[in-house]
Amino acid sequence: MLYSKSFINTSREDPKVAECKSHKLLLKANFLYMVSSGIYSYLPLGWRVLNKINKVIKKQMVLAGAQELLMSAIQPIDIWKKTGRDKDLEEVMFKFKDRKSRELCLGPTHEEEITEIVKRYATSYKQLPFILYQIQTKFRDEPRPRFGLMRSSEFIMKDAYSFSLTQQCLEDNYQKMYKTYEKIFDKFRLNYFISEADPGAMGGSASHEFMVPAEIGEDILYFCPGCNNYYKEKGRCASCQGETEAKKMVEVGHIFQLGTKYSMAQEAFVLDQQGKRKPLIMGCYGIGVSRVLSAVAETASDSRGLVWPKSIAPFDASLLVLESGWNQEALELESWLEKEGFSLLIDDRKEPAGVKFNDAYLIGHPYIMIIGKNYRGSAKIEVEKRETGQKFEIAKDKIVDFLKDEHNTESN
Ligand code: ATP
Ligand code: MG
């Protein structure tokens, strides 16, 4: 992609509306457009990151045997009345009536709807177990939308639902999702902790939250600096008996063993081996996809800008063309790299080198490559690793090997 032809419009000034580091950087680097408080559009760079986050999630969900579907965003209030959650979630629901006075809402979550779908088709234990998931926009009329995508009124969630005949099978699925979540959050290079949580309005027995420490977090966990352990309650550290300290955390994922709360209320039964009617035993598993984007931006950035992990960076590298006459070479390099699965944002603009460097640091691709003075004659590309600042001089024909080695080192 040539920068000169792209719709990337970074700004030099810090946006006045910014409420925290990630909000500031994502607006300034032009990943997001703020439509109104709590409502955002994803601009091309932000959309590329979001799609990469989804790709990581989908890969692991498929490996866990889950099947993707897409439920409706508009839901009838009738299904919520069956579980009584029309009242529990009344405050956050965006409710409205259609022209026929049908009471509807924009889905804040989908336990009721998935239960309606599954009960329509699952009649026998032979169809169990299975896990269904979707990646979809949710709507919640949050009392205080803030910090950009961290707490917005419209946000993207990955929500998965497991259906089993027995508690043991639910626990197996829960364990599988727990491990899947670890793999997913590892890929995002998030420094996360898993804490036992209160199932709250979701109901059910067990529940775990995936938490990332950040100053703007709205949850508190107690941290032992010696052992790196986190606790739900203030109490001395269970390992070393040392003092614990309160730390603010952002919840990026949440898994629940729901049990039969929804299947009993919505009459979702199947026949077991003996022909007896049994309620489906359910689990649900959420990841705040758009919140992950913000959480990575919040925790992986420096004074110069964003620092994306390779798995979700918009492009693999910024290629700065600092000498005129080399655009054609840059495009050839791009098409060669693309064949090997690497993408480039080629900064071909007629701007001073300082402007190009500032934007490259701000946008935060894992590598900044430079076609400058050394390219003439020796065909050497200067490469800087965004995260560490390490610099390399790589011959043009070795650049793919270099990127492949780097990727292999990371995935090992
Ligand atoms: P919170 O405690 O932060 O309000 P929640 O517990 O109500 O979140 P869940 O119903 O567990 O949220 O939703 C699953 C995931 O969706 C959360 O772990 C979080 O990452 C994300 N999420 C929830 N609310 C929002 C929001 N308003 N904006 C962005 N992401 C959100
Ligand atoms: Mg939660």
Record the SSE blueprint.
Elements: H1 21-28, E1 32-36, E2 39-42, H2 44-63, E3 67-68, E4 74-76, H3 77-83, H4 85-88, E5 94-97, E6 103-106, H5 111-121, E7 130-139, E8 154-164, H6 167-187, E9 193-196, E10 207-213, E11 219-224, E12 229-231, E13 245-259, H7 261-265, E14 269-271, E15 277-279, E16 281-288, H8 289-299, E17 301-302, E18 305-306, E19 317-321, H9 327-339, E20 344-347, H10 353-363, E21 367-371, H11 375-378, E22 380-385, E23 391-395, H12 399-411
Helix pairs in contact: 1-8, 2-6, 2-8
Bound molecules: adenosine-5'-triphosphate and magnesium ion.
The second-level CATH architecture of the largest domain is 2-Layer Sandwich
Associated small molecules? adenosine-5'-triphosphate, magnesium ion
Structure summary, number of beta strands: 23
CATH homologous superfamily caption of the largest domain: Bira Bifunctional Protein, Domain 2
Could you explain the architecture of this structure?
- There is one protein chain.
- This protein has 412 residues and is α+β, with helices and mostly antiparallel strands.
- The protein has twelve helices and 23 strands.
- It has two domains: 282 residues, BirA Bifunctional Protein, domain 2 (2-Layer Sandwich), CATH 3.30.930.10; 97 residues, Anticodon-binding domain (Rossmann fold, 3-Layer(aba) Sandwich).
- Strands 3, 7, 8, 9, 10, 11, 12, 13 and 16 form a nine-stranded mixed sheet that branches.
- A hairpin with a 5-residue loop joins strand 14 and strand 15.
- Helix 1 packs across helix 8 and helix 2 packs across helix 8.
- The longest helix is centred in the middle third of the chain and has 21 residues.
- The model has no long low-confidence stretch (mean pLDDT 95).
- Magnesium ion (MG) binds next to strand 13.
